[in-house]
Amino acid sequence: MSVTELRAACRVDGVITLFYYADVSAAARWYEQAVGFEKVLDYGWLAIFRIIDRAYVGLVSGEVGSQQPIAGVNKGAMVTIATRELERWHRHLVDTGVAGVESHLQRGCDGNTLEFKLRDPGGYTLEFFQWLETPPGMRVDD
Fold it and tell me: How far is CA 130 from CA 47, 80, 87, 108, in A?
């Protein structure tokens, strides 16, 4: 089966990246109030936030979920957000007083992007970036 046939036969309706927390309530407040993501579901032990249409980050209590929070700063995963409004996102997070926002934009991805990073209350990295020249296949209109 070709990739095109597979995509037609096996539809994907959305993507949810799940992170696990000792204090899921603190993480949920941060994503909603500091970052400004839309909370679309809240079970107390699980909160899901829409990043864009059909792409979400889910915050799960380590006391209930199938995984456990990982101690330390290297979580082995991060949420990376591609945006053409990188400077606005950076200004919003700095103006909101979000702790740990890098003070300036820097080049990343071998010089192909501008980016900044910050850590959420559980230590997971949130990266915002903008392609300097968007590669084929990564364009919004592709």
Answer: 27, 10, 9, 10
Pairwise CA distance, residues 86 & 89, whole Å: 5
Closest CA relative to residue 82, chosen from 46, 47, 116: 116
For the 3-131 domain, the top CATH level (class) is alpha beta
Residue spans per domain, the chain = 3-131
**82, containing H or E segment:** strand 78-82
What pTM value is reported for the model? 0.86
3-state secondary structure 9-41: HCCCCCEEEEEEECCHHHHHHHHHHHHCCEEEE
Mean pLDDT of the chain: 92
